[in-house]
Structures are given as structure tokens and as C-alpha cells.
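Reopening this one. Same input as before:
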Amino acid sequence: MASQRTPLYHYRVKDKIVGPICLTDLHALLVSKKILPDTMIREEHSQCWMPLATELRRQERLARLRASAFMLSCRPPKSCLLFYIIALLLLACGVAHSIMLHTILYMEVLFVPAIAFFMGKMLMYMHLLTGGMRKMPAQEPER
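Same output, byte for byte:
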């Protein structure tokens, strides 16, 4: 697997080129007001200069895209399907029972299947919020 290298940047202050420096250090300089958002920067082996604010926005957008792609790659657990099947069976049993009694029992027909369906949905959403527990790397013991 190829290692991802952190890009290094040069920035221009009063006709002087400073660098190479990583983007997090540039962000720290920006927060400490040692440089401005319109400070011109360029990647280490590039000749194209751009404002620092533009690159920070681009990096932020890329981070959001990576996070959303990871969230979409996490599949809900198979137990969600089990809750949906239970809800469907409970609904079918409730309808059949109501037909046999010639009366609608809301508890059997709607309420119980709705609880099973809700539990399946909650399980799926909790799985997405945790980022898919099976995708998290195991912690290595310290030596």
C-alpha cells in the first residue's frame, strides 16, 4: 500500500519565500495572525501560487468528502434485516388475527410491528453514527 505523503507548501511574506511547511503549521500561523488568509502559497514542486484561504477551503472540502465516503461504505448490520422481517411478520399476523375476529386491534396490527421496524431503523442509524464498528482498527498493545 502506498503511503500518503503530507504535501509541503511555501508561502510568500514581503517578497520573501518561506518554507517548506505543512498545511497544519500554515493554519497555526493563520490562527496566530502571523500571516493573513490572502497570503500566497504554493505546493513544494509547483509554480502555481494561490491564496491560503483557497487551499484551506479545498482541504476542508476533501476531508468532508472522505468522511462521507467512509460513512456510505459502512453497511448496516444484518440484524436490521431481522427486525424488518419480524415487523412484517407481526403486521401480517396482526392483520390475519383482526380479519378472523372481524375487528381491528390497533395494538397487534400497527403498534407492535412499528416498534420492531423502529428498532431496526435505530440499529442501522447507530451503526452509521459509530462508523461501522467492524471497520475500526484494533488497538495494538504498547510494548
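So the earlier flakiness isn't reproducible anymore. For the record, The mean pLDDT is 75.
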